[in-house]
């Protein structure tokens, strides 16, 4: 979609849908991918199934917040670079605003035991199960791809490191290349990412340039805000595996330096679990504790800037690679491996941290049925989950 064809209606549509997702997407990055799949692939068809899964694989391979990067990529499909930025703002700013408010007004609030939070975790169980079933049906139709799914599932569960997903995807790509390189029925993704190679190269250069220049600037200037930006940017640049992995890095930067106390850090971590959206927005809380809302916005920019630069930098080159007949087989293997990775993430941590009792499983089954069989809109399922969680809080089985 060119800039000339972009309309305010399209941009407002992107903003409205992404903001709604930002207000209702609880459960972590895997759950977010489930919400995205339901909204963008099934309901609105902004991106086709193959392209969506390949985009997920690319963002799993890149460092940074994978669900936010997928959201940016889908925004690019719909509205170019501006659409990607707006999609990010809609999905991320609700949690950023909530965490800045918490940092300014709430001291040590513990929402971990709230019933409605538990209900939202059950919604995440239903959403991810629904998404994984649909993706498995389309992307692993034969026994070979089912075997790759099983491989990805097993390795992801048994080899829990930040680099396991990269290893799975690379191995599956090699398998797919050799097994399916002569496959003539791999399908042609209809999605195009309108970013030029020149712009992509500039973004990648800026990504690595900041990674090198910021530590030097930090030493030369001795300014606190430069030091904070450097620490947070580096955390967002070098983390594989999502928000839970970035937290220890942020703690090692903020607590020993005295920027944030251990108590404030742990309180913010608890609050972050209670808000929708990406866990990387925890940086907004830390920045706000240090220097009010200005510090919160600066930390938000620093933690997510690498994600933008990497996605904008990788998409134009990946866009060409996936159209190469020699590479299509590799993507077939990667697509199946991603399904396995998502099933593993569905079991742990989503299922294991949400379903403790038979009544939990029963409510999750109801929520799943609302999506799978009754075709209820996601917001209805979210609302039902909130009510279910409150009810469960007062029922003893």
Characterization of this structure:
77% of the residues lie in helices and 0% in strands. It has 397 residues and is an all-alpha fold. It has one domain (1-113, 150-183, 193-341). It contains 15 helices and no strands.
Please summarize what this structure is.
The protein has 397 residues and is an all-alpha fold. It has 15 helices and no strands. It is a multi-pass membrane protein.
Secondary structure layout plus pairing:
Elements: H1 8-24, H2 29-43, H3 49-61, H4 66-105, H5 115-139, H6 143-158, H7 164-180, H8 197-221, H9 224-238, H10 243-254, H11 262-273, H12 282-321, H13 325-351, H14 358-372, H15 378-393
Helix pairs in contact: 1-4, 2-4, 2-5, 3-4, 3-13, 4-12, 5-13, 5-14, 5-15, 6-7, 6-13, 7-13, 8-9, 8-12, 9-10, 9-12, 11-12, 14-15
GO molecular function, one term: chromate transmembrane transporter activity
Subcellular location: Cell membrane
Family: Belongs to the chromate ion transporter (CHR) (TC 2.A.51) family.
What overall form do the CA principal axes indicate?
globular
What is the count of structural domains?
A: 1
Report strand %.
under 5%
- Could you spell the SSE succession in H and E letters? HHHHHHHHHHHHHHH
Total strands: the figure is: 0
| Poorly predicted runs of 5 or more residues | none
Main β-sheet, in a few words?
Answer: none
Keywords: Cell membrane, Membrane, Transmembrane, Transmembrane helix
Organism: Ureibacillus manganicus DSM 26584
InterPro entries: Chr_Tranpt_l_chain (IPR014047), Chromate_transpt (IPR003370)
Pfam families: Chromate_transp
């Amino acid at each position: 979609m060119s800039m000339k064809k972009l309309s305010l209606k399209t941009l407002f549509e992107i903003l409205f849908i992404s903001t709604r997702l930002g207000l209702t997407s609880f459960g972590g990055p895997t759950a977010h991918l489930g919400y995205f799949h339901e909204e963008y692939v099934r309901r609105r068809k902004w991106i086709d199934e193959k392209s969506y899964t390949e985009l997920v694989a690319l963002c799993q391979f890149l460092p940074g917040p994978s669900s936010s990067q997928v959201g940016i990529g889908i925004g690019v499909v719909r509205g170019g670079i501006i659409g990607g930025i707006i999609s990010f703002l809609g999905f991320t700013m609700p949690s950023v605003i909530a965490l800045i408010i918490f940092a300014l007004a709430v001291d040590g609030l513990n929402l971990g035991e709230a019933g409605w939070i538990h209900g939202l975790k059950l919604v995440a169980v239903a959403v991810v199960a629904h998404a994984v079933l649909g993706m498995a049906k389309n992307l692993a139709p034969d026994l070979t791809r089912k075997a790759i799914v099983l491989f990805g599932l097993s390795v992801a569960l048994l080899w829990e490191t930040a680099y396991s997903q990269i290893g799975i995807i690379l191995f599956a790509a090699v398998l797919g290349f050799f097994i399916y390189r002569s496959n003539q029925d791999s399908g042609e993704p209809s999605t195009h990412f309108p970013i030029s190679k020149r712009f992509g190269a500039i973004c990648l250069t800026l990504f690595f340039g900041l990674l090198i220049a910021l530590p030097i600037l930090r030493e030369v200037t001795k300014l606190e805000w430069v030091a904070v930006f450097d620490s947070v940017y580096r955390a967002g640049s070098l983390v594989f595996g999502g928000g839970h992995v970035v937290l220890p890095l942020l703690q090692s930067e903020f607590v020993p330096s005295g920027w944030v106390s251990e108590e404030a850090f742990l309180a913010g971590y608890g609050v972050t679990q209670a808000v929708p959206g990406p866990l990387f927005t925890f940086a907004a809380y830390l920045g706000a504790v240090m220097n009010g809302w200005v510090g919160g916005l600066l930390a938000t920019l620093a933690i997510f800037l690498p994600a933008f630069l990497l996605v904008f930098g990788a998409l134009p080159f990946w866009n060409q690679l996936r159209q190469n007949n020699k590479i299509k087989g590799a993507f077939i293997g990667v697509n199946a491996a991603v399904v396995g990775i998502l099933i593993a993430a569905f079991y742990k941590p989503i299922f294991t941290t949400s379903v403790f009792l038979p009544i939990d499983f029963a409510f999750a089954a109801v929520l799943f049925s609302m999506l799978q069989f009754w075709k209820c809109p996601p917001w209805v399922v979210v609302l039902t989950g909130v009510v279910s969680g409150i009810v469960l809080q007062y029922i003893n089985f």
